[in-house]
Amino acid sequence: MKFRRKPRENVEINLASLIDVVFILLLFFVVTTTFTRETQLKVDLPEAASGTPPEETALKQMEVLISAEGSYSLNGQALLKSDLESLMAALGKESAGDNSLPLVISADAQTPHQAVITAMDAAGKLGFAHLRITTVEAEAAKP
Question: Which residues form a coiled coil (predicted)?
């Protein structure tokens, strides 16, 4: 007896719907991705022959960076205006009224003296008592 074989069917995968799904997933990931742009000032610290290293504390620390042009940045967030009022407002908002937090002022070596004095004045008016100014250790002169 001779059995009749069924002709084989060509199995094809429909790629059009698969491509649609991939594009929708791609669109979803592009739309939901957040891009953060870190803004940091490049500060070349002045040198000091003597000084003490900062103590490690568990307290929240606030840092005011002052660029060579005199623009301010508080805890890595650049301030739009470089005046006393905006610096005081930013310090008050960041500290939430807690003036016992340590405040570090890191100014570029080429920063105008007035910008450092403005930062110190803002800290003084808000009642910050623990104030530090950042420097780098001076290299010993070679004989």
Answer: none
d(CA 110, CA 140): 21
CA distance 101 to 61: 6
CA atoms of 134 and 53, how far apart (whole Å): 10
Quote the pTM value: 0.55
Round the average pLDDT of the chain to a whole number and report it.
Answer: 78
User: In sequence order, what are the residues at sequence separation of 6 or more whose Cβ sits closer than 8 angstroms to the Cβ of residue 78?
Assistant: 39, 41, 71, 72
Cβ pair 59, 101 in contact under 8 A? yes
Could you give the 3-state DSSP secondary structure of residue 77?
A: strand
Rounded to the nearest 10 degrees, the angle between the axes of helix 113-126 and helix 84-95 is 50
pLDDT above 60 for 83? yes
What are the structural domains of the chain? 47-137 (3.30.420.270)
